[in-house]
Amino acid sequence: MPAASTSTTSSSNALSYSSSVEKAIVTIDQHATLMNQYLEDDHLLLALKHATIMLTELRNPNLSPKDYYQLYLQCFDPLTNSLSKYLRTQSQNDKIDLYEIYEFVQYTGNILPRLYLMIIVGINYLQFVEDLNTKNEILKDLMEMMLGEQHSIRGLFLRYFFIQFFFSFSKTPQDNVFELIAFHPNPNDPPLSSSSSSTSLDHENDDEELKFIITEILMKNFIEINKLWIKIQFHGPSSQKHQRHIERNELKTLVGFQIVKISELLPPPPSSPPSSSKDGVSTSSTSSIKILKNDFLPLYLQNIIQCNDSLSQEYLIDIYIQIFPIEFILKNLDQLLLTIINLSPHVSIDIIIINLIEKFRTTSNIESEDDKTIAILVEDNLLFEKFYNFLIKYIQQKTMQTQISADSDEGNNNKIGTRPRILLLSLLPLFDHIIQLTLFWYPNNFENLNKIFEVMKDNLNLIEFNNKQNIIQIRQLLTFHNLTLNANGKEAMGFIIDSNFLLKLITNSESYKSLIIDSLSNYRSLQYDILIELVSAFIENDIELQLESIDQLQKIYTYLPTTTKYTVSSSYTTKSFQIYSFNYEFYIITSTKKNQELKYITIDSQIDILINLKNWLLKSTKKTMLDNNELQHHHNQHYSSGQNKNNIWGIYPSIITSFWRIINKCHILKSKQINDKFKLRYNQLIINLFKHLSKFINDILVNPSFSSSSSSSSSSSSNNLQEIFKLILRTSTFAQNIQQFDIANDFITQSFIILEDQLNSDSSIQYESLLLLIRTLNQLKTNNANNGNEVMNDLRIRCVSRCSKLLKKKHQCRSIYLCSYLWSNDNDVKDKDESNQGARKYIMECIQRSIRIADSIMDGLISCQLLIEILNQCIYFNTKALSDGVFVIFNEKFMSSLIELIKKSIESLQNDQDNYDQDMIKPLRFIFTLNDQVIGYEMGKISFVSKLVAPDFQSKYVNEMIQSVDEYFNRTCKYIENIEHIEV
Amino acid sequence: MMKSFFKAPLDIEILLDNEDSRKHVHGNLPLYEDGESINGIVTLRVREGKRVEHLGVKISVIGSIDVVKKADNGTNEILSKKPLDQFLCLSYDLCPTGELQHSQSYSFAFKDLNKRFESYVGRNVEVNYYVKVTVLRKSTDISKIKKFWVYLYKDNVSAITTVSNSLSTQQQQPTAISNGENAGPAEENGQSTNNHNKVADPQAKQIKLDIGIENCLHIEFEYSKAQYSLKDVIVGRIYFLLTRLKIRHMELSLLTREISGMKPNTTIKDTITIRYEIMDGSPVKGETIPIRLFLGGYDLTPNMSCNYFSVKNYLSLVIVDEDGRRYFKQSEVILYRTRE
Predict the structure, then answer these.
(1) Which residue in B175, B277, B320 has the most chain A C-beta atoms within 10 A of its own C-beta, making it the best mutation to test that interface?
(2) Which residue of A186, A232, A289, A677 has the fewest C-beta atoms within 10 A of its own C-beta?
(3) Is the pLDDT at A69 greater than 80, yes or no?
(4) Which CATH class for the B2-151 domain?
(5) Contacts of B246 (CB under 8 A, 6+ apart)
């Protein structure tokens, strides 16, 4: 043997690898064939020589992982099939001594082929050694010798080969290990044929052996393989770092394979009955679990931490999660989580956690019934507790690190900024995932959520709010945006967050509230965004809210008043108002629910909230005023009162309309109630609401912002005033509609006060306001049967006197003759002759007064116009009287004198062609003649309507009408022509 | 005369006792050891019908150190050879002057022959042993030599008993794994089967070195012993304390150094006898690389020294970096021969 060995070594020393992959493949093929031939001829030593040459090809350092793998595969087959088989059969027949061969192959000069051959021979040798210690020594020896291979890729493949070969001896890995452990000279002997006592002894030994194999062999191999894998990135120039990274990813399965094999040592899931029926196997399987748990896992996790390489850590944790059965992971979750905490800060922990949670989820979906372990773990909130503790520890640790790094970096400020950011990148998703977890496993346990939010609240300072991405994330997190999105998009989370969930969350989680309300108070825009999203979730979802108690409602309240505190900047005011109005709408929704009892409650709460809202607005406007003054003092006009006020003015009408709505609701409810007691109650409610409304309007009017704004810019403030005024009038109309006439009257009175006290700047506005007032009054009069009362009369007279105070005569005149309507009676007039008589008197008075004013106007055209209008009015009243069957108010004499007056003024206008455009007079004349004609018919007591459409009447006047239209058209055409000329 | 000049008038045959059963080494030479008697039979065959007169037949055993000049072209062709020292020369007469008429055999014996040196064939020096039979004649003497080979087994020597003591344990542990199987011989030796013997024995001096290049490489290596038998295994390890070097591979070589000639005209010839890769690729800091080199498979020369020449063995640890630079550290080891 020595002589032969010398020749082998000397020749292998001279060997070198081929220059290209193609050549290498040819070489490998050649020598594989030669090796096989020599094996057939029983020339083992020569065969080994060719195996060495073949393996020398694997020494090439210039191969990419892919090429290397190709060569590896090519070598793998001849080595494991023919060579290994030969060794085994020859050894079985006692023709060769594997121990000698084992020593012999160590003469191989190059380490890589030497190690491959050692593995092949050594592992084959294991099969023929009975003594456990010897076996272990062989394995240990292999492990130690493999240290000589320090080249990353070559080493990876070598160790991969070791594992592959080690496990390739039998079909199932478990059998394999036990086969390796307990050698049976005759392979036909069933493993459990020996006596029972020795079996148990065997088991003890087996356990010891398995433990040894796992800890001493597999884990050592794994640690080394991982080291080699990490080392790849340090090869070559740093410019190729990316390339190295890709290579590492390509090679990671080699690392993972090891873990896969270890995981296969675990017993198959209990679903396969035949294996579990044999008690021997079952005991051994439980012991294998124990060993994996006690010996493998701590080592494994410890090594993950120690290797301190992010890619490696990520992959190894991931593969552990993916490969090991769920029960195992669950049972050893604490260790795993503890490891995750200690991972390098560059590892994206959130991905790991989501994978983990995802794994739990998918497995539970698949085998929901079979799996008792999961059920046990999930019970009692255990799973959540674990993750929760993990979260807390993780944060603690990270904050500590941050502090330490901050302390140490005090001198050089380079890294202060980086650390916390690293932490945060993973922190938010972490929260997210754990929330998802608890939602999935414990959908009804809001205490969990509460805890999470508590933690989040406490650690909010860790989150950088400068980062827009962070803000978005927080928002999505707190509004469960991800979850809802997932539910819509894919079946990702498998459950739907509905508004009921949010409702429950709000009502059950204190910390959620305090998080949003208190902790986020420095980030208002965020806070408001969240609130808006929350509330809109209530509104947008059509799912019925299932409010269970008043308590729930009250809790929801607590989200609201706090917002009143934050109204510094205008944009927030709008936002917070949005929240309010949304909330309000939310109440509307809840109130329409079918639950009768609740309906009653919700109305109250609606009222409450509305009043809150109102109070808030008032307070806020006060506050903004103060703030703004300060700001103005300081520097700019940006937040000027005008801007702010506009916001307030934008808001309050909707509050008023909200009041209407709620009152209307009460009204409807009231009308539906049969019980008088309830009716009375609703009535009281309505009246109270109106009182609030009225008070609100008053408060707005006396609001400092209002008064200050009215002083600062008169035009906009009068617009606002007019707005209020209109709203008051509408409120009054509204009150009429629901039969609250006294209230309607009150509001009109209020409107008068505004009109008189404050709307006194602009005449045209005053005029418009008056017209509105008149209309409202008229409506009130029409609706209210009891129109003769004192209040009404007062209002009318007040109205008229107000009209006469208008600045422009034209306006005075018009408004006054319109006031005449106020006394006109639509309803049963005949019954009340007396009051009717009084009314006629007032109508007459109004008309006469307006005629006087019209007559006194200097501008003939306007005067004439007004007169014609008045005439028209008179005709209306007369026609009405005729149709009602009462005496006409304006007798013939009055009418004719009025007509005469008009005729005269038209004539004078026609004559005074210098001052008045005849074209302007024409339509006047036309209208007048029309009126005149009507009057004529009236006198003949002929029905107004029938005569109005009489053909001769038409032909006569319509022609003239058409003519004037034609003229106007021609004039326009001419004008356009002229313009064209100019342009050309 | 002419006849006898052209063709010797008698054939001399030297047969050593049990020659066929004796172990043959180095070009099929029978192997002897120190103190072993050399016995045999010399047969003088006279040609048919011839008579040979002689002045006596003498047998001698000779051990000599020769200086050899070999061609440097690698063919090892011997250019010249001259004896330097004959350290052994014993002879006596087999028969007195007389006449040989027919073939005759004489047995000879050199009892308990002391052999100072091992047989050796080196680059410049050889140590040869042979038995020489000379038939003295008035005219040219007829002589015949019979070479034999000599091994010196150090475990005979009382001076290194401790070494031999550790050796026998070492022997039953050629690999770390063979424990169970080789338990038998260990018990026979009556020695402790405890493997820790090696460590416990204070005489088994380790070689432990701490070397490095500043800020570049710092390694610590140790060989289990400084003295090895030729069938021994070199076991050791290398501990990398610092590696900035991109190492391509590391190998262990055994260097045999032959120093010949008298001072100051000594010539040194180095021969790399073993070249053995022990590491491939670049290790990281803290890595420990095992060394295990079986010597038994190689044809090695044990250490020798005498006035005229000496043979020393060195273990050389060579680190080759990726640019092909070689860094090495040599440390002397003593190789000695033991019985199998």
Answers:
(1) B277
(2) A186
(3) yes
(4) mainly beta
(5) B282, B321, B322, B323
Cis, peptide link before residue B264, omega less than 30° from 0 = yes
Is there a contact between A150 and B180 if contact means CB atoms under 8 Å apart? no
Pick the residue from chain B with its C-alpha nearest to A135. Answer: B177
Residues contacting residue B96 through CB under 8 Å, at least 6 positions apart: B56
Rounded Cα–Cα distance for residues A901 and A907 (Å): 10
Sorting pLDDT into bands at 50, 70 and 90, what band is A921?
low
The domain ranges of chain A are 17-169, 212-267+287-357, 381-401+421-487+495-563, 625-703+715-807, 843-932+951-983
Other C-beta atoms closer than 10 Å to the C-beta of A725 total 24
Among candidate residues A573, A741, A603, the one with its CA nearest the CA of residue A664: A603
Residue ranges in A41-172 assigned as alpha helix (H):
44-56, 65-78, 84-92, 98-105, 111-126, 132-146, 152-167
Torsion on CA atoms A948, A953, A956, A959, rounded to nearest 10 = 40
* Beta carbons within 10 angstroms of residue B276's beta carbon: 23
Please enumerate residues of A whose Cβ is less than 8 A from a Cβ of B: 1-2, 5-6, 9, 13, 59, 61, 99, 102-104, 106-107, 109-112, 114, 129, 131, 133-134, 137-138, 140-141, 144-145, 147-152, 154-155, 227, 231, 235
Minimal Cβ distance to A137: which of B179, B277, B290: B179
Whether B67 and B81 have beta carbons less than 8 Å apart is answered as yes
Amino acid identity of residue A15, one-letter, is: L
Helix (H, G, I), strand (E, B) or coil at B58: strand
Residues ≥6 apart with Cβ < 8 Å to A805: none
B48 at A interface, C-beta within 8 A: no
Q: Which residues pair with B110 in a beta bridge?
A: B38
Q: What is the identity of the amino acid at A69?
A: Y
- Rounded Cα–Cα distance for residues A230 and B282 (Å): 13
pLDDT digits (tens, 9 = 90+) for A351-390: 787 778 777 777 665 554 455 555 655 666 777 777 788 7
Interface of B with A in 251-310 (CB under 8 A): 274-284, 287-290, 292, 294, 296-299
- pLDDT for the residue numbered A497: 53
Cα–Cα dist A233/A235, whole Å: 5
Nearest CB partner across the interface for B290, out of A1, A107, A144: A144
Q: Which of B181, B277, B298 is facing A111, going by the closest CB pair?
A: B277
Q: Which of A150, A224, A238 to mutate to test the interface with B (most CBs of B within 10 A)?
A: A150
User: How far is it, in rounded angstroms, from Cα B145 to Cα B138?
Assistant: 20
ipTM of the complex: 0.78
Q: Does B294 contact A106 at a Cβ distance shorter than 8 Å? A: yes
The top-level CATH class assigned to B157-336 is mainly beta
Name the amino acid, one letter, at B71: A
What is the band of A197 on the pLDDT scale with cuts at 50, 70, 90?
very low
Structure-token pair, residue B267: 């010539």
Q: d(Cα A150, Cα A140) in Å, to the nearest integer?
A: 18
β-strands B309-321, B304-305: how paired? antiparallel
Are A703 and A622 spatial neighbours (Cβ–Cβ below 8 Å)? Answer: yes
Do A157 and A234 form a contact (C-beta atoms < 8 A)? no
User: For position B239, what pLDDT does the model report?
Assistant: 92
- Domains of chain B, by residue range, sit at 2-151, 157-336
| Residues in B 166-195 with any Cβ partner in A closer than 8 A | 174-181
Domains B2-151 and B157-336 share a fold: yes
Rg (CA), chain A: 48
Residue A890's φ and ψ, nearest 5 degrees, are -105, 115
Q: How far is CA A903 from CA A577, A861, A864, in A?
A: 60, 12, 9
Question: pLDDT class for B2, splitting at 50, 70, 90?
Answer: very low
Longest CA pairwise span in chain B (Å): 86
Q: What is the pLDDT of residue A231?
A: 83
